[in-house]
Amino acid sequence: MKKLALIIASILVVAGCVGQTSATESADTNSPSGAAVATAPPQNCRDVQEAYQEQVPYQEQVAYQEQEPYTYYLKAQVISATQSEKIDLNMGYYEEAAVKIKNIDNEAGWFTVTFNWKTLYRSSTDTVRHYIEPDKIVDFVSVFDKTAGEDITYTYNYISDPITKTQWVTKYRTETKYRTETKYRTEQKCD
To answer: What is the pTM of this model?
Structure first.
């Protein structure tokens, strides 16, 4: 019988230990077994702003130099323009127009003078070309065959041959670059 009393006492001691809860345990009334469940002690939580770095893209206009071709015409000056009636045993009557042109540029080049002859009944165009050095004067002469007493007028224009040169120009292109920015996010901190 002593044995039986010892077994019953052991059962009661074990049952008493199972029914006790510690400071961090509480009886869960919603638990189907009603057993004690461990819960965390109450905490002090708050929202704080945390700084962080981020690479942010942006667009920037960047200047660069590039050679670009352009067309250049030499500068010239008309020194004189004359028209005169002439007679020759072989040609008979004719008109002569003379235009004196001075190259006032610092480069030599080809110049063209176009003569436009006109009478009451007909017209004609004559083109004369010469190579002119800088600061030199050249005569451009055109002859128009006519009959005696015929009224003749002429006009002229001149131009140099185009010269292609290159020049440095500033251009712009859009580039994507990145900069570091400090940003803030809200995080919850608990003690």
So the answer is: 0.57
